From TrEMBL:
Signal peptide start and end residues: none
Region listing for Disordered, in residue ranges: 29-48
Bilayer-spanning residue ranges: 72-96, 116-141, 162-189, 201-220, 254-273, 279-302
Domain FHA residue range list: 379-430
Pfam families assigned: FHA, Zn_Ribbon_1
Alphabetical keyword list: Membrane, Transmembrane, Transmembrane helix
Domain of life: Bacteria
PROSITE patterns to which the protein is assigned, alphabetical: FHA_DOMAIN (PS50006)
Name of the protein: Zinc-ribbon domain-containing protein
Length: 455
């Protein structure tokens, strides 16, 4: 009803004059607009996406039996080669003389100073054969337990990776001892090298230095990758992450196989020059070939297992991606408002699809302490307010216009990286365009400049 401003009488809506006093009706005041809700959630406009998202499925996984078989073959060859090499070292040659130094002293009469060094040589020879046995045990562990998803399996997989890290440490120790032995033996017994001591000594020293440098570089390179592999194995077995193992680790067994071949060649010439017996030299060379074959199968099984980890998660990737795209499609399709609401200026002033605050199940907190609610629909974070629901300022310019997307489901977060500078979760860089889960409490770094915390 409309009321006259002169006499206060009631009139029909739209009447031009008052039916009681005859005065013209004044314009009725419009309802007041509701105040905007404070907080970061009010700064999240729904925008049309300015780009087309695509999904690339991982490669089709291989059959589990083939993976298990390759791991078992690798472990068997490595353990067999290491065990036979250890037997040849201890039985076929004067191992006692080598360990005590008496045999070398009697052959060349070099004095007591050089005799003690042969003890280190014997330790190096033993470690050379024990190291692949440890690696082989890890391969057998992978082949026997990789597909049994349990808490025990996850723990054993971590132990297996730590054993692999110990293999690198042993390889470094062996190469260092071997380098010392080569240099000292070549200098002490240069007179028995067929009249050409200097070239032979230089060749052995250069090869030993190259072997040492290769193992040092390999250890430094794979130290971080090995740590991430343990992290990825653990997350994969626990079922709350989709990131496969770091592909950098695939060089580890291949490099160890090449190193075993180099050791076999060096041992062949080294034992011949130092008169330690050609029987051991030939045996060491043959066993090195066996070890190289074992490492090669380990290389194949590792890469296949890495592909299998991604392949097993491929349906999860695709399902999560399709669900996200469907939600975005529903989010961007305009819905027709009811007739009553379309005539109301109060309803027309409200956003078309304002998400209720009760739907927010998680929060993203910035380093400045600002918290943004996260619900079942994806929220995009970036530097462009026209394309991102949450604008992040970055003076270095490493935040992309649409850097990443995040939503909350089943008590965990689902993140998708869209950027060129990368999104890192708990020290692990996400694959661009590939949905990845993260638990509450995780730390997210955008472009190496903006840090967020998932609460």
């Amino acid at each position: 009803m409309a009321f006259c401003t002169h006499c206060g009488a009631e009139n029909q809506p739209g009447a031009a004059f008052c039916t009681k006093c005859g005065q013209p009706m004044a314009a009725q005041p419009q309802p007041a607009q509701p105040a905007a809700q404070p907080g970061p959630s009010a700064q999240q406009p729904v925008q049309q996406p300015a780009y087309q998202q695509t999904y690339t499925a991982p490669a089709a996984p291989r059959q589990p039996m083939k993976l298990e078989l390759m791991s078992l073959i690798a472990g068997g060859l490595l353990i067999l080669g290491g065990l036979l090499g250890l037997i040849f070292t201890c039985v076929m040659n004067p191992f006692y003389d080598l360990a005590t130094g008496f045999g070398i002293l009697n052959r060349y009469g070099a004095g007591n100073a050089i005799g003690g060094l042969s003890v280190w040589a014997s330790i190096a020879l033993i470690l050379v054969w024990i190291t692949p046995m440890l690696y082989g045990a890890a391969e057998l562990l992978n082949g026997l337990l990789f597909y049994k998803k349990s808490r025990v399996t996850a723990t054993l997989m971590q132990i297996g990776n730590y054993v692999n890290l110990g293999v690198l440490a042993h390889g470094f120790l062996v190469s260092f001892i071997y380098l010392i032995c080569v240099i000292v033996f070549m200098v002490s017994y240069s007179h028995v090298l067929d009249g050409s001591p200097l070239p032979a000594m230089l060749i052995h020293c250069i090869l030993a230095l190259l072997l040492l440098a290769a193992l040092v570089l390999l250890s430094l390179k794979n130290l971080r990758a090995q740590k991430q592999a343990v992290f990825s194995y653990h997350q994969h077995q626990m079922g709350y992450a989709t990131a496969p193992m770091d592909s950098k680790l695939k060089t580890q067994p291949l490099a160890l196989g090449i190193g075993s071949l180099i050791f076999g060649i060096l041992s062949f010439f080294f034992c011949g020059f130092c008169d330690l017996g050609m029987g051991y030299a030939v045996a060491a060379f043959i066993m090195s070939l066996v070890l190289a074959a074992g490492y090669f199968f380990g290389f194949l099984s590792f890469n296949s297992i890495s592909a299998q980890v991604a392949g097993q998660k491929a349906p999860d990737y695709k399902a999560a991606f399709d669900k996200m795209m469907q939600q975005n499609a529903n989010k961007y399709v305009p819905t027709a408002a009811p007739a009553q609401e379309a005539q109301s200026p109060v309803q027309a002033a409200q956003p078309a699809q304002a998400a209720p605050q009760a739907e927010a199940q998680g929060f993203v907190r910035t380093a400045a302490g600002v918290r943004y609610p996260v619900g079942g629909q994806e929220i995009r974070l970036g530097s462009d307010p026209a394309q991102s629901g949450v604008q992040l300022s970055d003076p270095t310019g490493r935040i992309s216009p649409v850097h990443c997307g995040i939503r909350f489901e089943k008590n965990q977060y689902l993140l998708v990286d869209y950027s060129a500078t990368g999104t890192v979760v708990n020290g692990m860089r996400l694959t661009q365009g590939q949905p990845t889960y993260a638990l509450p409490g995780s730390t997210v770094v955008l472009g190496e400049s903006v840090t967020l915390t998932l609460e």
